[in-house]
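INFO  loader      accepted 1 record
INFO  loader      residues=284
INFO  predictor   begin
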Amino acid sequence: MAFIELTGLAKSFGPRAVLHDVNLSVEQGEFVAIVGSMGCGKSTLLSLAAGLTRPDAGQVRIDGVSLTGIRPDVSIVFQNYSLLPWFSALENVRLGVQAARPDWTKEQQRAHATVYLDKVGLGNALHRRPGQLSGGMRQRVAIARAFATEPEILFLDEPFGALDALTRGSLQQELARMCSSREKPVTVVMISNNVEEALLLADRIIPMTRGPKATLNAGVAVPLPRPRDLSQLVHDEAAERVRADVVQALTGANGRAGLGRGSRERTGVAAGQPAMLARAMEGE
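INFO  predictor   done
INFO  writer      dumping tokens
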């Protein structure tokens, strides 16, 4: 049995059916990226998987146990940082540690929080409030808070979507390093509308269909060692095949993933064409 199991999930908001018959299995320690166009229901799916929202139908099981709410071994990173503006970076992270380690003293919690803020390069900004930090620095605080709880599972809701390209690249590499640095790798489910980001970070990419009644296509494995480099992905043949298969699944009429070596020629997607990929992803 897989570590995370989503079976037959469905979710509607009023008359609008957002998700239908969503099935997903994630192995322990795996990094899975769910990729789809804007507005297709990715955030709703992540909310269901994390226990923030209950499905209308179907079931979420983690480690064989049905999910009834947010588990204490889960951390979530949102696109909008979700920091308390009246607290410093250190206190924002400490509050996360407090929730995970309520038996620790405040001094222990602060020391632990400081370690993770140092890891994301914010050791000299511990006492700044979110309003005194750039967008990239705020997201570093959010990532430090997520990892400081030492979670078994990490859910990422387009965590870099609002950042500039340079900051995004830096934080993607930081996330990849932190995911692989622990003795027991964290299990990660990330949603994104960026194929290149998924290629850079994930072990497996799951294309999501457009709504309404969005669902998941078959996954596409990324057979490349991590950590990866963006320049490597532009010229790597295996990356080209994965990229083409994912884009074909997202844009093709049949909506199937994993179409094989010839899919690059059928879709017209080649290495070094990020603009085409962006247009395909944002064409909704």
